[in-house]
């Protein structure tokens, strides 16, 4: 649930989050390293502890990684955003 709210917040800030821009290694997938950088930026100036970061990454992938390849394709990303559209977009750090 938290992970979905997080993604929703990311989507509602299009200037902050552009899929292609977040794909740091250019493989058309948001892998764990890409997601890590996104999370780091969205949670700045707070820094998540490594434990919280791992938990959030795990939640994100559990919710969004439909084919279990450990990375989010654009389609998977869109899907999770649609799924999360019922939730409040308010981002609160509650780890
Ligand atoms: Ca995937």
Automatic annotation (TrEMBL):
GO molecular function annotation: calcium ion binding; magnesium ion binding
UniProt superkingdom: Eukaryota
Gene3D superfamilies: EF-hand (1.10.238.10)
Keyword Magnesium: yes
Listed PROSITE patterns: EF_HAND_1, EF_HAND_2
Pfam family, one: EF-hand_7
InterPro entries: CIBP (IPR051433), EF-hand-dom_pair (IPR011992), EF_Hand_1_Ca_BS (IPR018247), EF_hand_dom (IPR002048)
Segments forming domain EF-hand: 52-87
UniProtKB keywords: Calcium, Magnesium, Metal-binding, Repeat
PANTHER family registered for this protein in UniProt: CALCIUM AND INTEGRIN BINDING FAMILY MEMBER 1 (PTHR45791:SF1), CALCIUM AND INTEGRIN BINDING FAMILY MEMBER 2 (PTHR45791)
Annotated protein name in UniProt: Calcium and integrin-binding protein 1-like
